[in-house]
Amino acid sequence: MYEGASEVHAAMQADIRAAGLEKSERTLTGPQGPSVTLGESASPVANFCANNYLGLSAHPRVVEAARAALDTYGYGLSSVRFICGTQVIHRQLEQRLAAFVGMDDAVLYSSCFDANGGLFETVLDERDAVISDALNHASIIDGIRLCKADRLRYPHADMDALEDALQKTQDRRLRLIATDGVFSMDGDLAPLDRICDLADRYRAMVMVDDSHATGFVGKTGRGTIEHHGVGGRVDIITSTLGKALGGAAGGFTAARGPIAALLRQRSRPYLFSNSLSPVIVGASLAVLDVLESNPELAARVMDNALRFRAGMTQAGFRIRPGIHPIVPVMMSGPRAEGGGDGRLAQDVAAAMLAEGVFVTGFSYPVVPIGQARIRVQLSAAHSASQIDEAVLAFARMGRRFQLV
Questions:
Q1: Any catalytic annotation for residue 219?
Q2: What is the DSSP string of 237-285?
Q3: Is the pLDDT reported for residue 24 higher than 80?
Q4: Which among 5, 32, 219, 352 is most buried, taking Cβ atoms within 10 Å?
Q5: Which residues of 163-187 are buried (b: 16+ CB within 10 A; e: fewer)?
Q6: Of 132, 139, 184, 277, which one is the catalytic site residue?
Q7: pTM of the model
Q8: CA 237 to chain centre
Q9: In terms of pLDDT, which residue wins out, 244 or 86?
Q10: CA-CA distances (angstroms) from residue 313 to 7, 306, 344, 395?
Q11: Which listed residue (243, 267, 277, 382) is catalytic?
Q12: Sheet of strand 357-358: strand arrangement
């Protein structure tokens, strides 16, 4: 082993720490929920940094389904599916997910990162082109890098630039427009109606990563496709089981039948990764049952988001506009100038924790330099009093750190 490598990597880590960009991990001593107990805290703190949008991560019915799947199907399958790893519940979940988002079929992956990583090189080659929003998730960016298609990027949500890219690639066999449904750092929704209009006009395909929308965005929680009324006009949907749909792990690609069939034959993360644990599959089926029988959960999380947004705006904070439960609280003021916004975000998050509110600061490289923020995330499980208390704590921090 070359010992000098350790010195290089230690120096890189020191540079991250000196810039105020080090990311610390908090240790939870219990389940995920609207309140959590951290290893360093003596009492529970209000949790406003999880993707637990519907509050189902520790739902009794979901936990019981996980236990039942463990008893019936075991812990894991010790292989990939085409060798020896498909159980009946895997196909049941794929069919349920496909029906839920309005597609022909779905393919399970160990994460949505893998679903995106295994998509583009499977369905596109050097005869094709992929056109991607500049703010797409890292997994889309990495997946596109693996494929041989021409790669074009348009400025975030810029439909004129998207149309220009479509015009420039009309000689390609296939064009695929790739976009997040909800952009995870800003909480804004892609203009899917306009994207689909352009796709129809230029005979292009549309792919949407709906990880931050599946289960709660749209009238019945079917995601941004339902919200924008573009059902039947999107070719591929990728999403996750690790956010609103239980919060454990796992992802999926839902698509038209021929695309799903091709993924089973050629998608590398599907072919070379172990099957999703039966425990997660069984629990995810129960999540869909809970969601479909309790439509008020989706409405509740959106109402909670509106309540928090209104309170923060009244308190004078600069937040990204929108309706989504992702609410970025941007760092501003004297301490944010000159590249100090990353350290400021970490300091505000630490001070909020001391006030009993668990939030996380986001800085480079998760967001661009100069755009550090506290990303607050609301859940259907949050009470009105928890939300109001969080706003009051933010207001105190706003005065203390000169954010407002």
A1: no
A2: EEEESSSSS-SSS-EEEEE-HHHHHHHHHH-HHHHSSPPPPHHHHHHHH
A3: no
A4: 352
A5: bebbeebeebebbbbbbbbbbbbbb
A6: 184
A7: 0.93
A8: 13
A9: 244
A10: 47, 10, 20, 10
A11: 243
A12: 35-36, 45-47, 357-358
Which CA distances in Å does 324 have to 6, 195, 223, 327, 371? Answer: 43, 20, 12, 7, 19
Instruction: Give the pLDDT score at 41.
Output: 66
Q: What distance in Å separates the CA atoms of residue 389 and residue 404, rounded to the nearest whole number?
A: 18
Q: What is the pLDDT of residues 266-299, one digit of tens each?
A: 999 999 999 999 999 999 999 999 999 999 999 9
The mean pLDDT of the chain is 93
Largest Cα span, the chain: 63
Partnered with residue 255 across adjacent β-strands are 105, 236
| Amino acid, single-letter form, for residue 173 | R
Q: Which residues pair with 130 in a beta bridge?
A: 151, 176
Domain architecture of the chain: domains with CATH: 20-49+295-400 (3.90.1150.10), 60-293 (3.40.640.10)
- Clarify whether 111 is annotated catalytic: no
φ, ψ at 178 (rounded to 5°): -115, 130
Task: Give the SS3 label for residue 394.
Answer: helix
Out of 59, 212, 227, 382, pick the active-site residue.
212
How many other CB atoms sit within 10 Å of the CB of residue 369? 13
Q: How far apart are CA 222 and CA 231, in angstroms?
A: 10
DSSP state at residue 317: -
Two structure tokens written together for 342: 């990353």
Amino acid at 110: S
Q: 3-class SS at 376?
A: strand
* Strand ordering across the sheet containing 326-330: 326-330, 373-377, 361-362
Q: Is 212 a catalytic residue?
A: yes
Residue 160 near residue 104, CB atoms below 8 Å: no
- pLDDT band per the 50, 70, 90 thresholds, residue 96: very high
pLDDT tens digits along 294-304:
999 999 999 99
Question: How large is the average pLDDT for residues 170-189?
Answer: 97
Could you say which DSSP state residue 39 is in?
Answer: T
